[in-house]
Amino acid sequence: MSELHIIDHPLITHKLSIMRNKKTGSKDFRELLGEIGMLMGYELTRDLPLEDVTIETPITKMKAKMISGKKLAVVPILRAGLGMVDGLLKLVPVAKVGHIGLYRDPDTHLPVEYYCKLPSDIEDRMVILVDPMLATGGSAIDAIKLLRQHGCRGTIRMMCLVAAPEGVEKFKEECPDVDIYTAALDERLNEHAYIVPGLGDAGDRIFGTK
Ligand code: PRP
Ligand code: URA
Prior knowledge:
three-stranded parallel beta sheet, globular, binds uracil
């Protein structure tokens, strides 16, 4: 069963509050999103398995712990997911990066696919799917379907910044094998399927469009 993890670290909550403020401009919004990406990545990777590796310190031989198991892929949903990639790559510089392009049709609110490029060995990687907004859940659910269609059979974790209860509910039904990690669970969706109180249109705020 899919679990919802709310990462409510004070640093993340504080930075998110600045991002929510409509007076915050694109430069600060982008920087804060990158910082939160790194802080959330720290929590998301907390349970990665370790293995013993024999190394030699300047003093003696020892069994040291190193990360073992499947390698990571970071997959942002374009455009807004791009804003969280660099923070994750600072933590795991050897991760590969895939891209899934989806936009929400303004009338139906349904996702429309326009791009998908994934690492060739995606089936052997654990995937962190990133998108700051989980509103109706449609984009995240479609992205997971695409990942599975392209052979991804390992663990997928969905990392977002703000989620709506409606989207979380739908996501849990459709993707029971994927956990969601979010910094905030907001109140609801409005009539345009925007998250309330939310932070507005994440892509537009990151890239200064609109
Ligand atoms: C936003 C956001 C998510 C999606 C969430 O993208 O970044 O991908 O909406 O909504 P959902 O949960 O209802 O599917 P948008 O379609 O605005 O595209 P953009 O990132 O290119 O601006
Ligand atoms: N996409 C956004 O960028 N913001 C929302 O509130 C909902 C969808």
